[in-house]
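Continuing the series of single-chain predictions for the mutant panel. This is the parent chain; the variants come on the following pages.
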Amino acid sequence: MEKIMLNLNSLATMLCTCDLYAYDEAALTSDEWLEVEKNLKVHGLNGPGSLFGLNSDELMDILDISEYSAYKIVRRMKSIQFFLKKLHEYEQQGIRIITKYDEEYPQNLIKKMKKSAPLCLFIAGTLPVKFEGISITGLQTVSKKEKGYV
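Parent structure:
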């Protein structure tokens, strides 16, 4: 089995947005995360990895995000040890998590779905280097807009 290879941008994205079972800290919603990413670019910061080490006030000042979003980011960053332990447990079960900051993230998802592309993908097995499509499972309810994407 391959070992988890993380880059800081991917780790920050997973840490802030993955809603893992038995993880008490609230995750950022897709809309909240898109706002964070947009403001990172506007302020010339080098991706989500720039979030590490910032406190709540710095997040609100630099990124112009709500106090609640900043609170959630700080709480998630403080729980990184627990999160890494969970990632390791998933790895032991043959499950990997990737984000758009990982090389193997399917670029056609970003091209087709744009901002609606999943922030994180849980993968069992391997992704082929070139493929025509991908199947995503797990939606319990689907909005009309999501049906169009699917």
